[in-house]
């Protein structure tokens, strides 16, 4: 039985997965394990998700640049208070699964200007909850008092009775 040659882009993606070190593998595994696609992945967001794998910022940026080279999206350096981020043109879940060896096609998503504009409306907030545990919130930059009160009431429902 003859083997079918893989497209060069897929071969390069799988090479990035297998030879990209622990960070590339951890990131692509994380993308593959998600149930919902993200339109935008912030560098700080992925660093926080992969904290236990000791992934370094430069490693995240290197993989995002590689994914940009493979035409799966665009890496945008943070400027003027905006975070460094990767705007996907492909499904991150499909990219992660393809890197792992899955044979299903990688679905494309459209890049539009509104996706980048909506990023400006959200901001990450890190709250030191207890020793060694931070809570990260991604909230609108113009959060209103009423929204903050609703969020506070919701968080109270999550607490375990003492």
Reconstruct the topology from this structure.
Layout: H1 8-19, H2 21-33, E1 40-42, H3 43-49, H4 57-69, E2 73-76, E3 85-88, H5 92-100, H6 113-119, E4 122-130, E5 133-140, H7 145-158
Antiparallel strand pairs: 1-3, 2-3, 4-5
Structure description:
Strand 2 (73-76) and strand 3 form a beta hairpin. Helices cover 46% and strands 17% of the residues. The protein folds into 2 domains: 8-119, Winged helix-like DNA-binding domain superfamily/Winged helix DNA-binding domain (Arc Repressor Mutant, subunit A); 122-158, no CATH class. By secondary structure, the chain is of the alpha+beta class. The model is unreliable at 112-120 (pLDDT under 50). The strands form 2 sheets. It has a 3-stranded antiparallel β-sheet. 22% of the residues are buried.
**What's the mean pLDDT score?**
84
| Termini Cα gap | 64 Å
* CATH topology heading of the largest domain: Arc Repressor Mutant, subunit A
CATH superfamily of the largest domain: Winged helix-like DNA-binding domain superfamily/Winged helix DNA-binding domain
How many DSSP helices? 7
Strand content: 15-25%
SSE topology string: HHEHHEEHHEEH
- Domains, number: 2
Decide which structural class fits the backbone.
alpha+beta
Instruction: Give the helix level as a range of percent.
Output: 40-55%
Biggest sheet record:
3 strands, antiparallel
Number of strands: 5
CATH second-level architecture of the largest domain: Orthogonal Bundle
3D shape:
elongated
CATH class of the largest domain: Mainly Alpha
Task: Give me the side-by-side strand order of the main sheet.
Answer: 1-3-2
């Amino acid at each position: 039985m003859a083997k079918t040659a893989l497209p060069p882009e897929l071969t390069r993606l799988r090479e990035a997965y297998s030879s990209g070190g622990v960070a590339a593998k951890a990131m692509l595994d994380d993308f593959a394990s998600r149930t919902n696609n993200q339109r935008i992945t912030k560098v700080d967001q992925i660093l926080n998700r992969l904290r236990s794998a000791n992934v370094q910022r430069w490693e995240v940026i290197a993989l995002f640049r590689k994914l940009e080279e493979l035409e799966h999206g665009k890496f945008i350096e943070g400027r003027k208070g905006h975070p460094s981020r990767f705007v996907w043109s492909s499904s991150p879940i499909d990219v992660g699964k393809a890197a792992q060896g899955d044979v299903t096609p990688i679905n494309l998503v459209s890049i539009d200007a509104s996706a980048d504009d909506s990023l400006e409306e959200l901001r990450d907030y890190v709250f030191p909850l207890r020793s060694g545990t931070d809570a990260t919130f991604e909230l609108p930059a113009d959060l209103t008092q009423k929204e903050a009160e609703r969020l506070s009431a919701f968080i109270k429902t999550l607490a375990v009775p003492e």
